[in-house]
């Protein structure tokens, strides 16, 4: 297979991981909203952990994107 | 966000003052300039705000106190009372990354946290600091960290290598998270700015999107500084308390 074509296909395959990240971020915010709805007084405590969870999950999206970009522009 | 032929043009390092020591290139680059500005601004903010410290704070002193209390609370909650001595470390890292991220949003500026070597240096420093600290505090029984208490002994051959690998990838994940966020975010801003110019009359559509994206980018930059700081606190807590 032509290496340039293989790189394009690889970059596209790497982006499939973003589906999992979408589900993950949805889970984090669903839990955040549920917990605030159950106990509005805990909002300040829960919000910090919620943001941490969101950022950590989004980081996985960026790992996949970096693989994709590496294939397209560097290798 | 000066977009040359490509939106990645903004990340190109330019030597402002070429300095060569033998064969080592230690030029003063635009990255170093932005780092200097970030440190100068952070120092100016904190020293200037608390110069005439009043019991009832004025506006600037409130800002400095808010920043201080935010990080102090984070260190207290996550590391505990022994963590107080590490507060300057966490605070410096937080302010450096915060100012680095936000200064990169200014048009024609440079995002030094969007350089993998900068974020990797920060993450490697945190990782080395935390590991050395753990060895100093716990000696050889630091390795108990890799076998969580309460896990069945039969699982050890599977669990310990996984724990070790996940520990060793901490600097990688810490650096890559910040780097990729800055790279992707600022590149997207440049891409949509390119669309705005290219579409001419209908350029107000990508422009409106770019405005919303810029607002999101400010939030993301603040969040990434917070995440780096809180992960530093959590790693410190791991080193001090061994889970």
Task: Write a structural description.
The complex is a heterodimer of chains A (75) and B (243). The two termini of chain A are 16 Å apart. Chain A has 75 residues and is mainly α. Chain A has a single domain (3-74), classed as F1FO ATP Synthase (Up-down Bundle), CATH 1.20.20.10. Chain A has helices at 3-14, 18-38, 43-74. The longest helix of chain A has 32 residues, at 43-74. Chain B has 243 residues and is mainly α. Chain B has one domain. Helix content of chain B is 67%, strand content 4%. Chain B starts with 14 loop residues before the first strand and ends with a helix. At the A-B interface, helix 3 of A face helix 6 and helix 7 of B.
| Strand percent estimate of chain A | under 5%
Mean pLDDT of chain B: 89
Q: How do the strands of the widest beta sheet of chain B line up side by side?
A: 1-4
Characterize the main sheet of chain A.
none
Mean pLDDT across all residues of chain A, rounded? Answer: 92
Oligomer state equals heterodimer
> Number of domains in the coordinates of chain A?
1
- Largest β-sheet summary of chain B: 2 strands, antiparallel
Structural class of chain A: mainly alpha
Number of strands of chain A: 0
CATH level 1 class label of chain A? Mainly Alpha
Q: Span from first to last CA of chain B?
A: 44 Å
């Amino acid at each position: 297979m032509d290496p340039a074509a293989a790189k394009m296909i690889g970059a596209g395959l790497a982006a499939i991981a973003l589906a999992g990240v979408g589900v993950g971020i949805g889970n984090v915010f669903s839990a955040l909203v549920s917990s605030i709805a159950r106990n509005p007084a805990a909002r300040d405590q829960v919000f910090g952990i919620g943001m941490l969870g969101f950022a950590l999950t989004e980081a996985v999206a960026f790992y996949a994107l970096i693989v994709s970009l590496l294939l397209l522009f560097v290798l | 966000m000066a977009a040359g032929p490509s939106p990645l043009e903004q990340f190109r390092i330019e030597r402002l003052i070429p300095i060569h020591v033998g064969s080592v290139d230690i030029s003063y680059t635009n990255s170093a300039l932005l780092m200097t500005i970030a440190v100068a601004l952070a120092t100016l903010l904190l020293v200037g705000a608390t110069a005439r410290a009043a019991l009832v704070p004025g506006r600037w002193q409130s800002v400095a106190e808010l920043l201080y209390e935010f990080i102090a609370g984070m260190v207290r909650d996550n590391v505990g009372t022994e963590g107080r001595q590490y507060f300057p470390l966490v605070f410096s890292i937080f302010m450096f990354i915060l100012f680095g991220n936000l200064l990169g949003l200014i048009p024609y500026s440079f995002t030094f946290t969007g350089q993998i070597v900068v974020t990797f240096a920060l993450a490697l420093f945190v990782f080395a600091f935390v590991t050395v600290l753990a060895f100093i505090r716990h000696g050889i029984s630091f390795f108990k960290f890799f076998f969580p208490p309460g896990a069945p002994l039969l699982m050890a051959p599977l669990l310990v290598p996984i724990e070790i690998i996940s520990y060793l990838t901490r600097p990688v994940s810490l650096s890559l998270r910040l780097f990729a966020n800055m790279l992707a975010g600022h590149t997207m801003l440049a891409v949509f700015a390119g669309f705005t110019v290219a579409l001419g009359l209908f350029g107000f559509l990508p422009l409106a999107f770019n405005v919303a994206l810029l607002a999101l980018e400010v939030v993301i930059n603040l969040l990434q500084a917070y995440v780096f700081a809180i992960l530093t606190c959590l790693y410190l807590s791991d080193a001090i308390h061994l889970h």
